[in-house]
Amino acid sequence: MGFKMGIVGLPNVGKSTLFNALTRTAAAQAANFPFCTIEPNVGEVGVPDARLDKLAEIAGSKEIIPTRMTFVDIAGLVKGASKGEGLGNQFLANIREVDAIAHVLRCFDDGDVTHVEDRVNPVEDAEIIETELMLADMESIEKRLKGLVRKVRGGDKEAMQQESLLKAALEVLEDGKPARVVDVDEDDLKAWKMLQLLTSKPILYVCNVDEDNAANGNEYSKAVAKMAAAEGNGSVVISARIEEEISQLDADEQEMFLSEMGLDEAGLDRLIRAGYELLHLETYFTVGPKEARAWTIRHGTKAPQAAGVIHGDFERGFIRAETIAYDDFVTLGGEQPAKEAGKMRAEGKTYEVKDGDVLHFLFSS
Q1: Are the beta carbons of 102 and 71 closer than 8 angstroms?
Q2: All residues at 6 or more sequence positions from 126 whose CB lies less than 8 Å from its CB, including other chains
Q3: Contact 72, 42 (CB under 8 A)
Q4: CB-based contacts of 44: which residues, under 8 Å, 6+ apart?
Q5: What angle in degrees, to the nearest 10, is found between the helix axes of 88-96 and 122-153?
């Protein structure tokens, strides 16, 4: 499974610069991190993972295939979007389709770049977008509740479940809080996700700083980090301008440039990983002479469901998973040495796959 992150923000915060850098970087890294344009504003990039390269080296794999993350460049938001201002409804419809939101915030001073609100205050910018999403959710919920009345009266269980969840969401929204704070029972999680409430989606705040503050951030980004921590969301510091410059360089030039800027890695790599962590995703690997490949699963996924990510037949006919921990595979020098050292385990249907597991699935067709 891959996942989709929508890039949102007010006008002139660096959102499009960031997306353009992201797609150009992906295209330049095509050997290891494939990029493809699905639509003009959608791009897929490989999730950076040094473990995959190491596994491929040990196994002599001919091809390296990373797990993927999709970014959607969503049109800039303005006040009143929930009422149709700007691109309003189109913006909101695009957000419904993503798994998480990367909210780009302007965290730099520059008199040449106009701010739509004539001031620089990333916390207030975040509140503008959150408010618009909350208003849109409230309007949507009220319409849906009216549409459920007849089915609820008729005892329709699915409609009654939806009504209960929608009312719980409306209650917190009317209290000025996003739907993501609702405590949803495990039995209701699938139905909750299908509601596609805008404010139920996790948020990663992307602090766009100037070049001088790319390494350590600034007072603006620190205020955002404090806000994100209080909300239970994530934050990452990036200089979109630096990322744009990096995207034009080859691998050796990028490394030299980053070193000169005092950066350990490209900000886009941090952004991708932070988004990955935001959704509690993990990676397992399949490794062989033909290819070394990474696969995305959610934390706590059991072996049959992890197998199903590769192919539905693997899940339906699951027998067992031959499992080697990443550290054992690398330390011992591959599958056969790990097997001889007793480090290969046969795991059944109740096994929760761990991040970094190297797996081989046995199944009946």
Answers
A1: yes
A2: 103, 105, 205, 224, 227
A3: yes
A4: 2, 26, 34, 35, 36, 38, 68, 69, 70, 71
A5: 70
Q: Give the pLDDT confidence score for residue 2 in this predicted structure.
A: 63
Q: For residue 211, what is the DSSP state? A: G
Q: What is the pTM of this model?
A: 0.79
What DSSP element (H or E) covers 14? none
Using the 8-state DSSP alphabet, how is residue 198 labeled?
Answer: G
What is 122-179 written as a DSSP string?
A: HHHHHHHHHHHHHHHHHHHHHHHHHHHHHHHHTT-HHHHHHHHHHHHHHHHHHTT--G
E strands in the chain: 3-8, 36-39, 42-46, 63-65, 68-73, 100-106, 203-208, 234-238, 281-287, 291-298, 318-324, 345-347, 358-363
What average pLDDT score do residues 182-204 get? 92
Q: Which amino acid is at 292?
A: A
Per the listing, tokens 């990955």 go with 276
pLDDT tens digits along 26-52: 444 434 444 444 554 777 888 888 999
Cα pseudo-dihedral 183, 184, 185, 186, rounded to 10: -120
List the Cα angle 222/223/227 in 5-degree steps: 115
